[in-house]
Design a protein that fits this description.
With 208 residues, the protein is mostly helical. It is built from eight helices and no strands.
Length: 208
Amino acid sequence: MPAGIVCMFLFCRWKRKELCKMRKQKLEQQFRDWLEGVSHHLETGCSVENAFVRAGKELELLYGGESDILREARSMEHLLANNVPLEKVLSDFAERSQVSDICHFADVFAIGKRSGGNLRELIGDSCEIIAMRTDTEREIRTLLHGKIMEQKVMCLIPFGIIFYISISSPDYFAPLYHNPAGICVMTLCLTVYLFSVWLSLWIIHIEV
């Protein structure tokens, strides 16, 4: 029972991290689309602030009214209407999202605006960099997809074997769970198994 609780705790912790990672990846893609819209509006002669607001309104057609990026766009529109500097809004967004591309863009945008740089070119270059990074990550995930599925299956096989033996031969594991020596052996095996799972997750985790 204690071992099961530990496994459940570790699984929930890992699952929470995976969901957080997926949400950040989705937000990163949405931000890329937002910047592409901003770049388009800048080419039509809009100011940077208006370009962000107009591109933000268009996000509802792509992602719906409950998406994270649309909530950020509406918040930005409200803050800009209250004369909050755009670089400050982007900095707050980056700090809350903890998405690397958004953080980098906010820093570069703030420096570019203070130094009087070409913001249209800066935003266009940022779109290209984010697009290249996203495409590279997608290619890596595609190449590793089969190995990731194999890793997941291999992680579940020990539990399947234990479940099968427990059903077919209930007394088979009795010597391992009802005496100190057996408990120590199984605890050691569980530790090795968890380390192996962590190592496999670390191997397939590739940052771009």
